[in-house]
Design brief:
The protein has 13 helices and 15 strands. The chain starts with a strand and ends with a helix.
Length: 350
């Protein structure tokens, strides 16, 4: 699959890799709390071509670099010259503590393990921001078109195993992605039910961030709150399905299938909280260029986000409602955007 990097009207504008650039092979990666995607790319003259791709279970590897070594050993007909890895966690001086894996990874460690000297670690949401430049129109679902100007800062929010956020600063010509750890800011309550949920989660976590609510594990925690604290009924069929599968996936799929009970209420709250924190992010970054919903969850629950309930909660911004209404809202349907963004970034490395 080949992508020529170009800017669509509603996507960010980045500096291009130099045209006429000689062919170079890149290893790009996206390390998440659940899975790691790795891909071998060929970059040439502003084009990215993915040659090989693999997905690994992140926790199956005691050393993260073992995944890279395994992947490269099976791609030995290509000499990789640059590596860029998107990671879930804050990167400082080429070093990151992987937030949901409790492991450290460094640029020097990758160099030593792979023998490749041109290496970069970037936040996974920063990688997703770069990945927006590689998307095709069919890889976005528009929830709200906004004002139509599409010039200005942008923002990304991505619920999955955790809750990622990033911004894209607009300088008048180009967008400049920057990482954020806004998912770890405090969960903000508005209703009596929110207060009850906060107290319930404080007993489990003590400090309750937005990530504790808006994530895969957060869906399950909202569900158990409604079951154990609010007394909503759990059927034996549902209980058995959650025991035999991913509880959060079972809950969301049940709601999408039209369940009118506890799973519907769970996802109603999840959508409301996602809308609230999305509005917070749009106001903080003044993201009139667009707000993108990425990560693993939004594409899977698009049917729940398109009903109008998401936008109804999102627009409740008090005196900033007009600003929020001007922001285009999109779901990123390509769950490999961070992987492609890491490859895009690798093109720019010297």
């Amino acid at each position: 699959m080949t992508q020529t990097v170009k800017r669509l009207q509603y996507l960010p504008s980045f500096p291009q890799a130099a045209t006429g650039m000689q062919r170079v092979y890149l290893l790009a990666g996206d390390i998440g709390g659940t899975k790691t995607n790795l891909a071998l790319f060929m970059a040439e003259d502003g084009k990215l071509d993915v040659l090989r791709e693999e997905t690994y279970v992140s926790r199956d590897y005691a050393n993260v670099t073992d995944m890279f070594v395994k992947f490269l050993s099976e791609s030995n007909d290509r000499k990789v010259e640059r590596i860029c890895i998107g990671v879930a966690g804050p990167v400082f001086n080429g070093r990151v503590e992987l937030t949901n894996l409790s492991r450290e990874l460094t640029v020097d460690e990758i160099r030593q393990a792979t023998g490749v000297q041109t290496v970069a670690l970037i936040n996974d949401l920063e990688a997703t921001a770069y990945g927006l430049a590689t998307l095709s129109p069919h890889e976005l679902t528009t929830l709200h078109r906004g004002s139509g100007s599409h010039f200005g800062n942008m923002a990304i929010i991505a619920p999955g195993t955790g809750l990622g956020m990033a911004g894209l600063y607009w300088d008048g010509e180009y967008h400049h992605p920057f990482a954020s750890e806004g998912g770890h800011t405090d969960f903000a309550v508005r209703t009596d039910l929110d207060i009850k949920l906060l107290k319930y989660l404080q007993e489990k976590y003590e400090i309750v961030s937005w990530e504790r609510v808006i994530s895969g594990p957060g869906i399950h925690d909202i569900y158990t709150f409604l079951r154990d604290a609010e007394g909503l009924e759990e059927s034996s069929t549902l209980r058995e399905a959650m025991q035999n599968g991913n509880p959060s996936a079972v809950i969301s799929q049940s709601a999408l299938a039209g369940d009118a009970g506890i799973t519907k209420k769970t996802m109603e709250l999840f959508v409301r909280y996602l809308a609230r924190v999305s509005a917070d992010l749009a106001m903080k970054y003044k993201s009139v260029g667009g707000l993108f919903l990425g990560g693993g969850i939004p594409p899977k629950i698009a049917g729940l986000l398109e009903t109008g309930e998401f936008y109804n909660h999102y627009i409740q911004g008090d005196r900033m409602a007009e600003l929020l209404a001007s922001v285009p809202l999109h779901i990123v349907d390509n769950d490999k955007a961070a992987l492609w963004g890491a490859a895009y970034y690798a093109q720019l490395l010297k």
